[in-house]
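haha ok so turns out i had the wrong file open the whole time. this is the CORRECT one, sorry everyone. sequence first:
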Amino acid sequence: MKIAPYTLTATEAVQAIASGHLSSVDLVKSCLAQISDTDASIKAWAYLDPDSALAQAAECDRIRKAGLGTGPLHGLPVGLKDVIDTRDIPTQRGTDIFKDRQPEKDARLVERLRESGAVIMGKTVTTELAFVHANDTRNPHNPEHSPGGSSSGSAAAVAACHVPLAVGTQTNGSVIRPASFCGTFGFKPTRGMISRAGVLQTSESLDQVGCFGRSLEDVALLSDALAGYDQNDRCSFARPRPLMRAGAQADAPVPPDLVWFNLPFNDRLSLDAREGIEAVLDMLGPRLTRMSAADTLANLVAVQARIHEYEICKHQAEVFDAHFEDLSQELQSIVVRGRQISEAEYTDALAVKDSAQTFFDELFVEFDAIIAPSAAGEAPKFGAGTGDPIFCTLWTLAGLPSISLPLLVGDTNLPIGVQLIGPIEKDDRLLRTARWLQLHLAQAT
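then structure:
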């Protein structure tokens, strides 16, 4: 039986296009048909322009047939979280405050996507200003549940096979958590790996770009295409990047050593998530070390909140002043609280963030990766929030590369992810460890 193109992973699709067995136009048509068939209940898309997508795909096919150079994402449809600027598609940031906002130029990561040959399908739904208040997107596995946030539509679009790849952002848990809830791979590379120029700024210190795909190699493929130095981003670093796809394809030379932290908030795990993760930990045997966490490590949750709330009030001050009554009640309360944080408290929080990065640098001398929950359990019911991000907070604060692997299933048959966290700028090593973990668990079951 012929496989429908929309079901292909990004890695499979790019190989099929390169070999001439699949055209980009046929792939985009198949994805658009899947969107038409399913998005009425999922609501993953804030903006979709089928004619533009097909025109981009036709140009990709023309380039390939002409024997011209092609990029690593040639002909692949990609969804963009609706906080990422595009010169030809509105960027509305999940709020009517920015309804029909049309940027004058592309974000730097969009430029890299176009250079890589990707087809920009449209904008995926985000929560209000990429923070806590949910919009309309539902979980593709069960529309009565949330897809998570704030990269709601990006995770849902990949899970529903609307696109093989999508881009999101994470300031706390906004890539890893929705990936867990929607059963996709979610990868947030090291802070500074991917430029944030042209992306809505909620926290200059914490905002990071991440990727969604349906395989480990998929998210590595997209991350490689997006990564690069940008002098316009203060966190971007002018050093060579690790080759992430090579890491995702590599075998570990020796079995890696993993560490699990016994954190005080681990009691927030649901029973099914706890049992599933314990089973994974048991399978690791001598490769796992369980470590008690100092109180200072758990206290980093409050540090992250202080930095995030202070900085969003600073970066979006004009928006909040002019449109306070147009904000959700959840965001209004955050703004009020954030404006009460003193500069001294904020400066102290930044110093603690720096010390956390030093702690993890020392930890990874001994261990290859941290293993942790991706989220507290299955996706919550729609209307009950986008889920607790606390199992991502520490690693995001420190800028560590993190990946959610769709390894578990909860009591109501919704996905639950398991998270791996690696050392700064060794994203390829983290992906190699993730590959090892997948193979190890497959052999053990």
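The chain is about 40% helix and 15% strand.
again sry for the mixup
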